[in-house]
Amino acid sequence: MSMPTSRSPDTQADPTSGRDSGEPYAVECRGVTVQRGARRILDDVSVKLQAGRCHVLLGPNGCGKTTLAGVITGAVPTMAGMVGVLGHVIGQCDIRALRRSIAVVNSVVSSEGHHPSNAAVDGSLSARRVVWTGFFGTVGLYDRPDAEQCELADRLLESMGMLERAGQVFQTLSSGEQRRVAMARALACRPRLLILDEPTTGLDPSAREQLLAALATVLNWPDPPTVLMITHHVEEIPRAAAQVILMKDGRIIDAGEPSRCMTPEQLTRLFDCRMYVRRVSGRWWLEVLPEAGLDWIRPLETGRG
């Protein structure tokens, strides 16, 4: 599917100077710190996301990945640092206007759940109508899309392999089908930045691969959005990923091309677990070494008497 759009990749202005830096960064964070009470969630985080490319934020649960996503969308306040998004500085711009160019897909799709992005939908709507809500940025459907939007919605559903389910009530779809409809909904507003926050959580292998295949079609568009995929699963890293960012304990420990960052040494350090990684057919696969459990588990010593 070729996604119609009138925009072109940005050559971003330097968010701190207003001058054209010549670097096409969709996101640039410098020295970002987030603290809640006595706990520092993000500690001096600096990261750059090149426009129109796919970036993967990889790290264990609780390391601060979702918090960083919240910082980028303006949902999480920072204690220090600068956050530049799509040529604007968070805190110095109209955040509501900026968010119209950002879409989020995550594992919480029901309006009964909660996620910092508020990327939820009314589960009583049909799949097609759920995608329609993406044009208006609403949970429910309160406006009628025009003919062009209706056509685009069906094209997006088709690209996600969900056109045959377009008339089915959203909440009756499987978890994997709901995520793909949510992806179509997110893309309806033609975002310049697409954040995927652990979108495969709870999916079986088949549903996960279908979602990753749908993502691959988006990355192959002539003018794709900048994509930030957040995960702790190495095997989910798309073939088209241009950068992997390794996060641990609220800090970036490495960032760069996947072939440089995805080493047994770096992943062992990242997850505190002895492991081996290999690349097969463009995808990364992780193997936890049999003796890894010995790092944490000790035989139970029992006395007799």
Q: Reading side by side through the largest sheet, how are the strands ordered?
A: 8-9-10-5-11-12
Outline: globular
Output the number of helix runs. 8
The overall average pLDDT, rounded, is: 85
Judged by helices, strands and strand pairing, the structural class is alpha/beta
Please give the radius of gyration in angstroms.
Answer: 20 Å
What are the low-pLDDT stretches, counting only 5+ consecutive residues below 50?
4-22, 110-118
CATH superfamily of the largest domain: P-loop containing nucleotide triphosphate hydrolases
Helix and strand succession?
EEEEEHEEHEHHHEHEEEHHEE
Largest sheet: 6 strands, mixed
Q: Which CATH architecture of the largest domain would you pick? A: 3-Layer(aba) Sandwich
Strand content: 25-35%
CATH topology of the largest domain: Rossmann fold
Describe this structure in words.
The protein is an alpha/beta fold and 305 residues long. The protein has two domains: 9-101 and 192-263, P-loop containing nucleotide triphosphate hydrolases (Rossmann fold, 3-Layer(aba) Sandwich), CATH 3.40.50.300; 108-190, Rossmann fold, CATH 3.40.50. The protein has helices spanning 65-73, 95-99, 127-136, 147-159, 175-188, 205-219, 258-261, 264-271, and strands at 12-13, 20-23, 25-36, 39-50, 54-58, 80-85, 88-89, 102-106, 193-197, 226-231, 241-248, 251-256, 275-280, 283-288. A hairpin with a 2-residue loop joins strand 13 and strand 14 (283-288). Helix 3 (127-136) packs parallel to helix 5, helix 4 (147-159) crosses helix 5 and helix 5 packs parallel to helix 6 (205-219).
